[in-house]
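Subject: complex prediction, re-run

Hi both,

The earlier run crashed halfway through, so I resubmitted it with identical inputs.
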Amino acid sequence: MKYVGQRIERVDGIKKVTGDLKYTDDLKMPGMLYAAVKRSPYPHAKILNIDISKAEKLPGVKAITTGKDFPKRVGLYLADKTFLAVDKVRYRGEAVAAVAAETLEIAEEAVRLIEVEYEELEPVTNALEAMKPGAPLVHPDLGEYSHAPIFHTVPGTNISEHFKLRKGNVEEGFKQADYILESSFFVPHIQHCPIENHVAIAKYDRDGSLTVWASCQSPYAVRAALSAAFEIPLNKLRVISPAVGGGFGSKAGTTLEGIVIPLSMKTGRPVKLTYSREDEFVNSYVRQAMYSKFKTGVTKEGKIVALEVEFVWDGGAYTEYGVNITKSAGFAMAGPYEVPNIHGDSYCVYTNNPVGGPYRGFGMAEIHFCIEQNMDAVANAIGMDPVEFRKINAHKPGGRTATNEPVYDNCGLVECIDTVAKDIGYYTPSEQPKDPKKVRAKGIACGMKAPSMPNDVASSAIIRLNEDGTAYLSVSAQDIGQGSDTTLIQIAAEALSLPPEKITINTGDTANTPYEWQTVASRITFCAGNAVLRAAEDVKRQLIELASIKLSTYPRDLKLEDGYVVSTQYPDKKVSYAELALGLTMPDGSGVHGPIIGRGSFIPENVKNFDLETGQSEKPVAFWTYGANGVEIEVDTETGHIKVLKVASCWDVGKVINPTLIEGQIQGGIVQGIGSALFEEIKLDKGKFLNQSFMDYKIPTVGDMPEMIVKFVENEQHDGPFGARGIAEPAMIPAAPAIANALYNALGVRIHQIPLTPERVLQAIKEKQNNKNN
Amino acid sequence: MKYKISFTLNHEKVEHEVEPNKTLLKMLREDFDLTGAKEGCGQGECGACTVLLDGKPVNSCLVLAVDADGRDILTIEGLANGNQLDKLQASFIKHGALQCGYCTPGMIMAAKGLLNENPHPTEEEIKKAISGNLCRCTGYKKIVEAIMAVAEE
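This time it finished cleanly. Structure:
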């Protein structure tokens, strides 16, 4: 292929390296006001009174809003949130009032003058406690909230989703087992930390139309939520996402847009709210914490025959998004392994902690940290090589997943395992450093992920030919760094036989670019890519129709080649796209057809609801992406410090569209995963966020980067564009468990929670020595 | 009260009046519409606001604008020669050393500061020079490769 599979340079490269690209915070508008937010100092409290009288009088203050202005609850999957608290606050930092003023300084001063009277309520800040009968209820009205029918709320409790997986007969399964092993793990809250903080600007016009500029991954999903909350028809609500400075899920839903809208409605002026880094830590989605338990039945030949699993997710104060993470984790609870008998539950639990939401991998990185350590622990316990143990149980073509979905021949998991085992030299013991206090070892982990999205989510694309033979491609898939602008152009270029530089892409404007559900779930190359492919095919059909008249040739004998429709029989017979773009001019000077506009729409095929009682479905997701990481680490037994020396990663992606971009995705995911494995953790004390800065919450720097070997397997996705499926999130999934497994291989200690901090490593070494001495 | 200062901004002499408590970053973004330098944390921890002051990289969120008096400021907007990209900018594109682009201006200016002092740094020297610049997307590998390619020229 000419363009697909090639290292095409990013189409947004020049704008990004020159500083010319305008992100939302770079926008300045005439008459723009600046917003600041009054936030709750309590994790759980009744709002008795909000006194804005002093703040209103401050010169320069133009408007103040509270939750009472728009009390309607909204949410993507579960309508449980308002943009400003109404009657009660459910986490420390929740917005209770907001001010718009001529300057940010005045707005901040006005916020200090707002007086809020609270009555403190007993908080619940641990998900396991929150599940118990009699725990304080975060949402006593849960039973009245509307939600998508695939979710199972438990009114009268803090459980906002209970996903059940029941496969085979787990009691019988355990009877067949030669060994039964139990383990439990904990994954803490972490934060996305895109370098760009959340920001939004709203402008309400007197004709009733509203424009919102936001750094958001999903302009159409934002439009839907805002339309519901503010009761504005969709044709009057325009959401523009000018550019996104990193999202990783944090910018998938709505966060602060709903705070600036009422302020603009009151003033008719554009109102901007930019989160500080502290806001970004506390008041944008966090990755949910999760407790897991496994009971694994395995035969002496190494076949897993029964599995009991429980996941308890700390969803925080609102779980409009968290319920779906809980469900998606439930589907995948056995990991990329075939287990005939499974009994599992995944619970999303309200607490008075920060709001949980989607984070790169959508539950998969969290559960695989547990699943993949459990796999090594079981293999070690039964005296089997962890790689062999994985290969025995791995999903393979002809097998069945936990939901009883057939595993198709595009599953290259075993190839990926073999590749990373070879690249990391898994069977060659690490060369030990001269310093006897330092130990090196290797570890391995697998991962899988599907797009966690409703069955019928839609994508669309429009291609317009220009009269010089160039083209515009319009989509609302957002380039949030992953490179979708470039890959979607490559797909269009290949299908249209037109060089990428002749195609310009437009995105992110609900008034001008066509529908896209969301830029999440590693679904854009697959879903939007298919829509682009169909739009290109539509253009092709029109070009060939006109060319067949022009060239007096049967359509079947025409093909597209480098901007021309060419006869396959007589290559000299051809007509350029430029000549046909606005329609065909006949010999007598008359014209036919008009401008060529291609349209493509796409919904994944036959993805069906699962059974609510068993979680079973033959096709619950569009596709699964499989892969593995191998790592080599060095542990300093004196300081407890772990250094990741080398990571080998291999994924079955169906088809590589752009090698440079996909390598970047994997490398970024590996390093982000190292952060979560070694040092990232939100420290919470009774709902109070203790480390809301880069000083206290470290993310990886260049010094944490290991040597990286990245490879791909290409077992074609039959319904993917040129055979491709999604990969952006999966890269992160096996990063943490592979390191934890390497730690066990180095020192024989298994730490059941991340991050693997020096303190925890030293503690584990000490405990091991104590056990030995006793 | 505002202070009158004069400095060179992207190769041009400028006179400007600025509040004593305004940071260099805010002055560049708000008063000069030079929005290439970004505020990622406002505490000097992320490096997204890196510009060159007298040829040396600084976190412009930690420098007061008045301290720019009499000095030479280069921002990402002034790095290219018109439409002719600087070698570092071209190398970042060629090596795929950027994703969301938010850290990119600061990252490139930090690298530029290094190459000003040390045109042929080692990989370790490059890593040290950009260790204060956070990138959440790339995993840093392609960034180091892009800078190395220029350093080896």
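The domain at 286-453+609-773 of chain A is CATH 3.30.365.10 (Aldehyde Oxidoreductase; domain 4).

- K.
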